[in-house]
Amino acid sequence: MASLKTLKMRIGSVKSTQKITKALNMVAAAKLRRAQSNAVAGRPYSERMSAVVVSLARSVTPGPQSPKLLAGTGKDDTHLIVVATGDRGLAGAFNTNIGRAARKKAVELEAQGKKVLFYFVGRKGRPGFQRTHAKAIIGQHDTSAMKNPIYSEAVAIADDIIDRFESGQFDVAHLAYSTFRSVLVQEPTLEQIIPVAVPAKDAAPKGGPASAAIEYEPDEEEILAALLPRNIAIQLYRAMLENAAGFYGSQMTAMDNATRNAGDMISKLSIKYNRQRQAAITTELVEIISGAEAL
């Protein structure tokens, strides 16, 4: 049985932990509002950009003269999964869920006989794959120096990935991140970003219908050559914004739960401490009374 001194020290330790988790909860709540606003504001632009690119891609017949980001390499033997996670922990299963979605996609591709490579954005994704897929990791972009997602960082990541694609390191690229739905719900998402995934002609594009007749100047292929790299950067930037909101939402929930659990533990330890203290006092009184009767 733990001594009174040990219980008292443990209660003090849990109270200190509770102060930390409560402070982290408040910080995450304060940062969540701005991160959520940025994520929601970025969605219409990224979705419309995707819709424009898909609309242009539908009007072009892929060939030798087409942009490589549209036509691809002509094969799909090697797939790259860009895993975008956070740079910090203490956010529940936020980073783990993104990694799990990427791992599931990798297993599906490997079952089809494809080679799978990984590129990490953020620090928390790589450790989970280091032991099982160390040789398949071809790059990582550390975003820990950023306080908030920056578009220039997304452009730098996109340029690095495009350079690797054009040098023949992979044939198809997928982006894994977490879509922010609410404080309690962050949905792991996986999308193909290279080459452009063109849905069936009877399916409406993500940004809405685009059935109007449009004339492009210059031609579609020239416009696509300029838009495709920017579209990849935009999708990466959106993933970073969504991740930022999802991270703070998950951290706020995790720290709120931790604060509640710490409070419950303090209550239980306090009851145990008071019972042992009362038992010790009772024992001393019995000894005193017994000694007095013996005299």
Structural account:
α1 runs antiparallel to α6 and α5 crosses α6. The mean pLDDT is 87. β1, α3 (94-111) and β2 (115-121) form a beta-alpha-beta unit. The longest helix is centred in the C-terminal third of the chain and has 75 residues, at 220-294. The protein contains six helices and five strands; from the N terminus they run ααβαβαβαββα. By secondary structure, the protein is α/β, with parallel strands linked by helices. The protein has one domain (46-254): ATP synthase, F1 complex, gamma subunit (Pyruvate Kinase, Chain: A, domain 1), CATH 3.40.1380.
**Fraction in beta strands:** 5-15%
- Please identify which CATH superfamily we are dealing with: ATP synthase, F1 complex, gamma subunit
Count structural domains: 1
Spatial ordering of strands, largest sheet: 3-2-1-4-5
Morphology: elongated
How many strand segments?
5
Which ranges are low-confidence, i.e. pLDDT below 50, for 5 or more consecutive residues? none
Task: Indicate the CATH class.
Answer: Alpha Beta
And the CATH topology? Answer: Pyruvate Kinase, Chain: A, domain 1
Proper CATH architecture? 3-Layer(aba) Sandwich
Major sheet characteristics: 5 strands, mixed
List the total number of helices. 6
Order of helices and strands: HHEHEHEHEEH
Residues in helix, %: 55-70%
User: How confident is the prediction overall: mean pLDDT?
Assistant: 87
Termini gap: 33 Å
Which secondary-structure class do the elements indicate? alpha/beta
Radius of gyration: 28 Å
